[in-house]
Fold these 2 entries.
Entry 1:
Amino acid sequence: MRIRTVALLLILFGMFGVLSLTYAQNAPEASEKGKQVYENSCAHCHGTEGRGDGSAAENLLPKPRDFTRGLYKIRSTGTGELPTDQDLFDIITEGMPGSSMPPWDTALSANDRWEVVAYIKTFYDGFKEAETPPKQINLSGKVPYSEQSVETGKALYTELGCVECHGNIGRGDGTSAPDLTDEWGFQSWPANLTQGWNFRGGADTEDIFKRFVGGLAGSAMPAFEGDSFPGFGLTAEESSRMIELDNKDEMTEAEEEESAQLYEKYDAAVDIALNLAEGTELSAEEKQIYDDAMKVVYEKSWHLANYVKSLMPEKRPEPAIGNNVLRSQYIHGELPEMDNAAWETLEARYFPLVGQIVIEPRQFNPTIDAVNVKSYYNDTEVAFLFVWDDRTHTTDETDEETGKTLEDALAVQFPAKVPQGPTAPKPYFLWGGRLPVYLWHWKASAPEQVTELTAKGVNNAEVQEAQGELKAQATYTEGQYKLWVKRALKTEDKKDLQLDPGVFVPIAFSAWDGANGDVDTKRVMTSWYTFVLEPVPSSKRFIYPPVIALLSVGFLFGLRAFVQRRNSEE
Amino acid sequence: MSLFTICLIILVGSWVFLRFVVGGIISVPIPGSVIAMYMGLIVIAILVHISVEDSLFREFRRPILETLVDDKRRLHRRVLVVLIPLLLLGYTYSIIAQRANPPGSPRDAHPSPPLELTYKDEVIGTMQDVVNPFRHYEKDDPEAFRAHVENGKRVYHHNCFYCHGDHLDGQGHFAPYLQPLPANFQDPGIIPNFQESFFFWRIAKGGPGLPAAGTPWDSAMPIWENTLTKDEIWDVILFLSDYTGYQFRTFGEAH
């Protein structure tokens, strides 16, 4: 080989080496620089002492991390382990969706982020005292996504008791959801597994797998260690056989013996796991049993991760901005009722909700992600279907502090009069001001009723005298509200908004989650979006285009005839 | 290659270049009206070129005439007599059946402030002359200045950072779902272009306080004079420039 080629190869390898270093590296020694960056960018939430008690922390939930306990939710490491430096760096870089931790990738240089990693490690001595690097979760046995795997994961989801917090189909509405607290005693809502975009540590299958195997330290989410699996130490077939036998009312003698054998194997494996946890040396045979058992557990965990992945859309829906406005579809005849399959054929528009932080009392920590809306209209009426996830069904709770009644609710807001032209002012987005808004207010305690209001400000709303123009139906199932509302396009009431096809009408929403303390101005809301009764496409579209096509044919023939005539004249 | 083919290639090539190369690979998409303008210019240039001499014009139209009448071009003719009406049919249909889109939201990004700066109903002074009452501490009493900045930081993180962000870059965790987006104070075009009194006005009066030129009043900026004291607003303004390192615009004595 020529020297030049060798040199070139060496340079390439060198570059590769440097690249791989930047990919996974360890934090530098803690320095003054790290402290400085931390105090400038992090301390207002996490506190100068790293206790998660900065001045902003008061209003936040989830609370900013307390670094003094060494408990980190998002790790690539096993349960009870500290995070790797790379884990900490990644969290700072990418932020934690669904919380107030933003991504710092543009605000801080990679160097600064590494300095911060080094500095926050000084808040917990465990990092210094650790003799071995934290043990990372082995991701090598990944089970590819398949319907079969999802089915297996779904069964495990029930067997492992995930439903208790995350609910039957994953909307975070399990029976114990409202009572969960974290290590510090703060409320800890279980994740809504259908909203992957709010997963703190990302929603790739690998991420889900790591959260499941390693747990979210400090939160109510435990790590699912091997022996907490039903049928630990058994193969997949054996464990489903065990459950099958357990569920039998009566067993034959042979079956009883089979069951006893399975239980014996299971107990033995659990004993080994306990011994291992206590630090007992395992014999080679025991080690083999344990390793085999863990292999099954990991495989099951991948199935579970695939199942959770199957619950969510691929990405967060696009908000209904720009031309992506809420378009009500025209249909002939009766408008579909709430349960009608006709609603399935419409694509919902997605209206993300943010906390109301303008007027006291404010809501800094929303629990309702968004409201999804569909609409149909006919010659005389318009119907809407509003769908939103809420972990709890609250109709009548009392707020301990204020004594006010807390309940779930939704309000749909229109201007009382449609602004004419793009520069015409709209009413103030928060329930109007100088210009009034027209509101539909629905409350969970009276699900068949929608109250019409006129408001000139959030604390200046009047119930309209003329009511009963709105028909409503509502259900709450599996952590999700569905509200169906129907109204005439034109009403007698002068305070109502009158609807005409083709007119772009501003629309906005407010929602209340009673279990999150929402009441009055404490709520989640949107600013103005746009709604239109999509005009029936003009029938001209079947007339003009063929006429123009025919004319063009005539023109071409005419042109040819003209040229021919002229040629023959020449 | 005939002159006609060359002209056709130039036309189609220019359109592809503008639409996909300039307005895609190199930069952001170009508005349709701008592309139409450029294409118009190119058509005019071609017309000028072919009409300079009679021979050029004859050369240009030769293939057209041939296609229309020549027996050798029968196949071309048949394809075109189907293709042209079909294209026109599709184009007219797409224009007529196009669904209406909502009007855009024209908005004055830098609305002109009123002449007088007020807090609630109290007149503070004229917009041009009012200065931050704590700004002078920066030179006179650095310790007091720090205390005001720290207080501004506290107020910011209790009220503003949800939208304007930890880094003051307008990317708070509530920001993505607000229209228009919250102001980005790290943008070098923001703080240095305004006096502190302008910021006081925008903070105190919020979205609803915008003048008619600021309509349609979509801004979610609250009226902070309802929540914050006058001093708190001035402190936040100190914090904004202290954290970002940008100086507010000043008039009067030279530096």
Entry 2:
Amino acid sequence: MMEAFTMLEGLVVPLDRANVDTDAIIPKQFLKSIQRAGFGPNLFDEWRYLDHGEPGMDPATRVVNPDFVLNQPRYQGARILLARENFGCGSSREHAPWALADYGFRAIIAPSFADIFYNNCLKNGLLPIVLEASQVDDLFKAAGGEPGYRLAVDLAQQVVRTPEGRCLGFAIDAFRKYCLLNGYDDIGLTLRHVADIKVFEERRREAMPWLF
Amino acid sequence: MTAQTLYDKLWQQHVVREEEDGTALLYIDRHLVHEVTSPQAFEGLRLAQRTPWRVGSVLAVADHNVPTVDRDQGIADPISRLQVETLDRNCAAFGITEFAMADPRAGIVHVIGPEQGATLPGMTVVCGDSHTSTHGAFAALAFGIGTSEVEHVLATQCLVAKKSLAMQVIVDGVLQRGVTAKDIALAVIGEIGTAGGTGYAIEFAGGAISALSMEGRMTLCNMAIEAGARAGMVAVDETTIDYLKGRPYAPQGALWARAVAQWRQLVSDRGACFDHVVRLDAARIKPQVTWGTSPEMVASVDGRVPDPAMEADPVKREGMERALRYMGLSANAPISGIAVDKVFIGSCTNSRIEDLRAAAAVVRGKRVAEGVKLALVVPGSGLVKRQAEAEGLDRVFADAGFEWRQPGCSMCLAMNADRLEPGERCASTSNRNFEGRQGPGGRTHLVSPAMAAAAAIAGHFVDVREWCGA
Ligand code: SF4
């Protein structure tokens, strides 16, 4: 089961760059990793650190880039990433949403997402939210203003609520929404058909015992 | 009932349930696992506190990262070593059968499955590896999957999939002496292009395909993915059944007869409709050599490197120019004049006993040319290696100046220590000639084992048809 996505309320970090590709999200040397978890420390590795990252390095010994937005003290613990257009373009690596989720993000707000990345996010319990460019602009201003800017994401209602009391509606595929709300991943969904699979398997075992 | 293609039959037999939009839950009979694409899937399983649905369906082996020399000393690169050890640990923890590195049955996942009889007609076979299409040679529905899907199959024994279109590639006639399944594969890709099979499952049929051994059919289906098709397949016939008889995982005794009776149905019905049909005349296929950085950039050995200036399509022309620059070749140069630095005989495309026999027949009593720095023979499995040694092939290769290695993927993708240096040119029996595939800056020419062997001896490409019986 994925963690069910109900209400999310959290700190927002603004990443003010367009066309952030998956290689920037998680550089290719980390794909040799044997885990799905643990990519968080290397999320945006080339931007977050001033030294070159290789798998196995201890993040504590790395040279941190103080200018990068994720490293600023005011944004520590952020759960919502605010981004610009075409976020997640490039290769189809699933390591990109893995890294974002592992870091602690549960939602990304942007004017547009790359297609494969968008779907990969949904497979991994990460909610990509498309808002209009002007709305995203407003959020960038707010999140960069007074520290501690937080947003509430209400998936059931399909709205993002701002502290100023605005409700920004967003669209999402009904089926995907249902999966997220209930915490169903693709495996979880398939497992709802356990009875069908078992019946099928038993029939197959009888007809072709040499396969078992 | 309407006439069905082999693909229709295989598909239909595995549908557990189907949604209105055609999305199906497909039952998976055999799940092959290797070290590169499985760690996250096992990790996911663990995080969700799930267990494999049916461990007996899974067979695991490490192949991509394993060294081909001094294996008893372990893997030097710590990251590669960890990937392999992780597979060992995951298999032990979940009770999955694994052929560990020291096991003589270990080798390239697509070689050992069929060799063990773990790939059987009528099965769905998946693996987190695109060349899973290889197993279609046994009239199985076999295709590669991603890491999330590896986890999905482990957890549910099923895959969510949509049916492809069906293509039939008919190769009639008789192959010339010295022309092999690899040449058919490259000729087909040259004909339809690397995207020609996109969206299709390809069935290979016709007299020249029936005449192929199982090894040859595997070579052909292996490269279906290079034509863009996720799956390739060949119908069951006597050759299939003869190959499987007595293999460790194949049915025995009374079950054998029952299985064979069912397997014989695994052919396309007369009059079955395909969405697309391609025809080739086997007699016209010559030994093939790729000249570019995509398997579709291929020519006959007696031909020349094409001239981009003759290409009307500007996008294609640009692609050809870029490829020639990367490959360090000039337009109109005769293929047979291209000199090679290294020779690699191996990979899941061409590392089976028949491939090694074909190469050894060319090499016997000759010497690797002066200019060739390294000529490698990497058997596809420990059992292939053992068989070859029993036939004395290792001596034939060693006497000629080839290196005889331990099994694995090796220089097919250069994930272990075997690789090309920048600018080096290689005659390779593998399946991908992409930029940097065999090492950064390396230049790959895809050929058959006999052609690779002949190139090693001559120092440049030669028409192996003229060497036959020489
Ligand atoms: S031999 Fe090459 S193509 Fe085959 S599985 Fe290994 S790396 Fe992949």
